[in-house]
Amino acid sequence: MTLKQVASGSEIDERLAALYTNVTAVRAIASAVEGTIGPKGLDTLLVDRFGEVVITNDGITILTKMDVNHPAARMVINAAKAQEEEVGDGTTTATIMAGAMLTEGVNQAVKGVPVTRIIEGVRKGVKRAIEAIQSKSRPLNGLDDPLLAQVALVAGREHEDIARLAVAASRMVGMDKLLDPKFRLSDTVLAEEGAANEVFLGVIVDKERMNQQMPKEITEARVLIIDDALEPEEMEEGALGTESGFNRYMELQQEFRENLAKLVGIGVKLVLVDRSVDSVAEEMLTDAGILVLQRVSSREARQVAEHTGARPVKRTGLKKDPADIEKYLGHANRVYEDEKLEHVRVLGGSGKPMATILVGAATEEVVGERERIAKDAASAVQAAAKGGVVPGGGAIELAVVREVEALRGAMRGMSAYGVECVAEALKRPLSQIVANAGFNPLEKVGDVTAAQMEKDSHALAIDCDTGQIADMLQLGVVDPTLVKVHALKAAGEIAEAILRIDTIIKKREDGDKPATPASPGHADF
Description:
GROEL, domain 1; GroEL; eight-stranded mixed beta sheet; 19 helices
């Protein structure tokens, strides 16, 4: 039974009105991204009120840029953001499975299954499915494993040049860095119009020299990062109107010059400043041959600090003795400005290895999409390094259906119907992938299910080029295990959260007076 049939039929009653409304909103969100999944998925055109357009195949971009007001739909988008933050991929799969899980949940509720029992079954089904996926996961044999390149290629939507960059970057930073929970390989991706594809050990700061008199290139650079403005200490407004205030102002100016002289004396060659730089500082540092970059983003400053070994310091820290300031300095073998691309590169840092993936784009219109593709590939590579891989193309989800259905058969009570919701959701990725490729999803899902059982293989799915059953591992269609696990977990959490909503009430704005009930026991909503 479809949602339309539920809505138009007599089966639905007042108790399910909130559920139906919420599930309809979630299904609308899922419909917006389901056409993008798989190798034959198409792009989506997003248009804002000014006529600016974004053409993308990226699920999280579509979800976050959609004009959405419904609270249930916003819950889905927030869950997708969490999925993106956690593993950097799989948001489309999570959204599609959540929609399917909830659709089946409504169908079961209409038949009379208590929602609490459905939720119980969803929890158990998701738990069993995650265990089954993890049991079928294959760890990578190091960063030279050929499967890593295939992971990058699949996540990178078959852009071989981008896949190569992501894999090369992972090898540069090494396994220890990839396993660091604070490190995101996708943060090293930068796309620029007119740039050549490359990956290198170093960091790009998307800023130019403060002026043309500063050196364009420096070697063996001592690096200082100021997490503040490079200006004299501020005085209270109106203080200059008194003699003591003016004297204090002159003292601060002199102290500031002395602090700058310390930087020159200890051999600082590169200064990154979080905010603005005073004209006096610019002049003195320029005369000393020091390269200064102002208003550097916190992300770029953090990357430079990690790569060079520098420790950010506040401007008050410049009062310290020169020997103490030196403890905050980092080192880079080479720093130079690329005038064509209008950025500065910091190479050969003495800190931790930091790779940069620079993706070129022919036109401004495709820069954003090339960057999104590269970030997906980089995220998938890191996730695969952390948790191994499983067959892609919807194969692993369909294989897990059998274990979930076995759980359902062994259960007693109405919570078994909730397990059925998870089974239906697991069929959805393969169904949508083959539909996007132009094949009959019902037929192909049935064929693959039979073939997997006959050959006892969890790697069989559909070759979207031929429509024939094929082994995804042999085709090189693999996905990171963590992406699959987190997508299923996110779908289950979304489904449970939506199913638990029994009533929708419009909340009054803060400051509004409560409405006076028209009669006892009745409030005006």
